Amino acid sequence: MAAAEVPSYLPSPQTEKHRRARNWTDAEMRGLMLVWEEFFDELKQTKRNAKVYEKMASKLLEMTGERRLGEEIKIKITNMTFQYRKLKCMTDSESVPPDWPYYLAIDRILAKVPESCDGKLPDGQQPGPSTSQTEASLSPSAKSAPLYLPYNQCSFEGRFQDDGSDSSSSLLSLKFRSEERPVRKRKGQGGHFQRKKLRLLEAMLGEQRKLSRALEETCREVRRVLDQHHLLQVQSLQLQERMMSLLEKIIAKSGV
């Protein structure tokens, strides 16, 4: 008997790989944090870790009920690692973590990894599909106990709320930290805009003063021209009076 054929309505792995990736939901992201932390040491110790990513995809399917390819998980972890390092370098001098809901979870996973403030991953690696061993170059981190979550929305959310471990409590607090951001960064941005606005106002005031001085010079020149015109008019009237006087004298002499 011939082997059973795969139904035509089921997409092949190659088709799913080249299809536009779906956006990651919040539940998937939380599950990915736990799966990443669970398989972190195995990813670091395995040079060719494609099978590890496939196991992570299976674990994520058990936890969330959403199917993701191992390649998708690898790309997502690589991009999140790059984003984490970039934010940490930008806010390294501040005591408050950046306003990114997954920053603390990734910080816990990569707690012992040496950081570099050039916005790049270690060994010149860049985020994206071409990075295959980002996690393999990271130094060891504490491995948490694996958490099995069946596909049940209520139980999945309840596990994050009721689990007393550091992983679940930290992930649960990420959402609330975004609402408690201090105004230090906003004040810094506001101060920058205030200084920029002040410089603009000073430049406008300087231009206004230049225009005022130019207008005063123009007014003085106009007054000088008007004074000269008035003087010429007076001299013209005086000349006309003299001419009239001479004409009267001439007429008087001719009449005699």
Automatic annotation (TrEMBL):
InterPro entries, sorted: Myb/SANT-like_DNA-bd_dom_prot, Myb_DNA-bind_4
Residue ranges of every copy of the Myb/SANT-like DNA-binding domain listed in the record: 22-109
Region of interest (Disordered), ranges: 1-21, 116-141
Listed Pfam families: Myb_DNA-bind_4 (PF13837)
Alphabetical list of PANTHER family matching this protein: MYB_SANT-LIKE DNA-BINDING DOMAIN-CONTAINING PROTEIN 1
Name of the protein this chain belongs to: Myb/SANT-like DNA-binding domain-containing protein 1
Source organism of the structure: Sus scrofa
